[in-house]
Design brief:
CATH topology: Beta-lactamase Inhibitory Protein, Chain:B, domain 1
Number of domains: 1
Number of helices: 3
Mean pLDDT: 78
Structural class: alpha+beta
Strand order of the largest sheet: 1-2-3-4
Radius of gyration: 20 Å
CATH class: Alpha Beta
Order of helices and strands: HHEEEEH
Strand content: 15-25%
Helix content: 25-40%
CATH architecture: 2-Layer Sandwich
Length: about 130
């Protein structure tokens, strides 16, 4: 009996959320904050012009990302080559600015050990 009451209460709460007129997260535009915490930008040396690039330039350069995640104003693009995976993290550098690449991580596809970011960038460009 108690289990049935709890289940009905949970169903009521779930349905009340549907009736409130809120749209699913997938339908909402990502929020643009007027408050920006400026991230530490990775040194661009040896990264072949990736740091400072917006998402459009990166997808033109490397093709469609394997993963494209957005959280608030931040974004992560992941590109994969035959032997390495490149994660590029994009953040806005000022309020309302387009996110640009501020940090890059590269690792082996098999085993996940860190690899030279520049070498992974070159691998992705030659595919």
């Amino acid at each position: 009996m108690i289990g049935r009451v709890i289940a009905l209460a949970a169903l009521g709460l779930a349905l009340s959320g549907c009736a409130s007129g809120t749209r699913p997260a997938a339908d909402r535009a990502p929020p643009r904050s007027s408050i920006v915490v400026v991230p530490q930008v990775m040194a661009a040396q040896g990264l072949g012009g990736v740091i400072g690039s917006p998402a459009g330039a990166l997808t033109r350069r490397f093709g469609a990302p394997r993963i494209d995640l957005a959280e608030g104003d931040a974004r992560k693009l992941q590109f994969a080559g035959p032997s390495c995976v490149l994660d590029i993290f994009l953040y806005p550098l000022s309020a309302g600015a387009e996110p640009t690449a501020t940090h890059v991580d590269a690792r082996l596809r098999q085993g996940g050990a860190a690899v030279d970011q520049g070498a992974c960038i070159r691998e992705l460009e030659t595919r």
